[in-house]
Amino acid sequence: MTVADKIREFWDADAATYDLDPGHHPAGNMIRAVWRSALAGLLPSAPSKVLDVGSGTGFLSLLACELGHEVTAVDLSPRMLGRLRQKADSARLQVTTVEADAVDAPPGPFDAVMSRHLLWTLLDPAAALGAWRRAAPRGRLVLIDRDWGDPSAAQQLRGRCRQLVDRVRSTPPTHHSTYDPEIVGALPLGHGARPEAVLELVAQAGWAQPRLGRLRDIDWAMAQQQPWLDRIMKGAPHFAVLASAPTESVGTEIPGRASPPG
Question: What is the CA radius of gyration of the chain?
Answer without folding.
Answer: 18
